[in-house]
Specification:
- It is a single chain.
- The chain is an alpha/beta fold and about 250 residues long.
- It has helices at about 30-40, 55-65, 75-90, 135-145, 150-160, 175-185, 235-245; strands at about 10-15, 20, 45-50, 70-75, 95-100, 115-120, 160-170, 190-195, 205-215, 220, 225.
- Strand 3, helix 2 (about 55-65) and strand 4 form a beta-alpha-beta unit.
- The chain is globular, with a radius of gyration of 17 Å.
Length: about 250
């Protein structure tokens, strides 16, 4: 029996038959995590690293689609502990591990140039003095670049990845150009991007991007747009399938 602490609950990840420990006091996974887990090419074996893992949702989503080792890196102790207990809850100790680390120190837990896929749902917003932050420190760290930066995320990813290994990020469209520039800086060549829209008549609010370490500069792909909701506000067919594992 896995212990639950005050104000924690167990939610079901229906599409993947996984359970996850969550708490609104610190962090609950969002559609961003679901989108990220469904975006990249997933290696069937080898090694996957989930940076900024939070309470472990992305790794749990991935675990049913691959036999690869999944290593999660999370700085915040409470979130890392929730992720560890979710691994026990799903009896995935042989496949998944969690390290409570600053991602810049990830090489102390994972060998250099050894990873097939890095996934990351990083803080989206620059830590500028005039930016209003959530008073909850757990949420502030998750959303703003207080403890890490886009540059550090991509630098660490490049250090972890083997040549031809892939990095997949979920981010905000307004950071697109900076992401392209920073990936190229660290020899991760952008190869595919997909823009995600809340509805068909709205601007994109989520960006998915995948790059290959040491890849060729030719062959960049812009995938078809993805809409999370239909005009009535219900989940789109694609989003419903990601969440629940079946078409409506």
């Amino acid at each position: 029996m896995v212990e639950l602490y005050p104000n924690e609950r167990i939610d079901q990840l229906y599409a993947n038959d996984r359970k996850i420990i969550q708490s609104d006091e610190v962090f609950s996974f969002s559609l961003d995590a679901v989108l990220l887990a469904n975006f990249p090419r997933i290696p069937k074996r080898g090694k996957i690293v989930d940076l900024c893992a939070g309470n472990g949702a992305v790794g749990l989503f991935l675990s049913q689609r691959t036999s690869a080792e999944i290593i999660q890196i999370e700085l915040q102790e409470r979130l890392a502990d929730m992720a560890k207990r979710s691994i026990l809850l799903n009896e995935l100790e042989q496949q998944m591990t969690v390290h409570t680390l600053d991602l810049k120190d990830s090489l102390t837990a994972v060998q250099h140039d050894s990873v097939d896929l890095v996934v990351c749902n990083p803080p989206y917003f620059v830590d500028a003095p005039d930016h209003k932050k959530n008073p909850n420190p757990h949420l502030a760290i998750a959303r703003h670049e207080i403890t890490t930066t886009l540059d550090q995320v991509i630098k660490s990813s490049s250090q972890l990845l083997k040549t031809t290994g892939r990095l997949a990020l979920v981010h905000r469209p307004e950071r697109f150009l900076a992401i392209l520039e920073t990936m190229t800086k660290y020899n991760i060549i952008p190869k595919r991007v997909q823009f995600v829209y809340p509805k068909a008549d709205k601007d994109a609010n989520i960006l998915l991007i995948e790059g290959i370490k040491g890849g060729k500069k030719e062959g960049f792909i812009v995938s078809p747009p993805l809409f999370t909701h239909d005009q009535n506000g219900a989940y789109s067919t694609e989003m419903h399938t990601m969440l629940y594992g079946e078409d409506r």
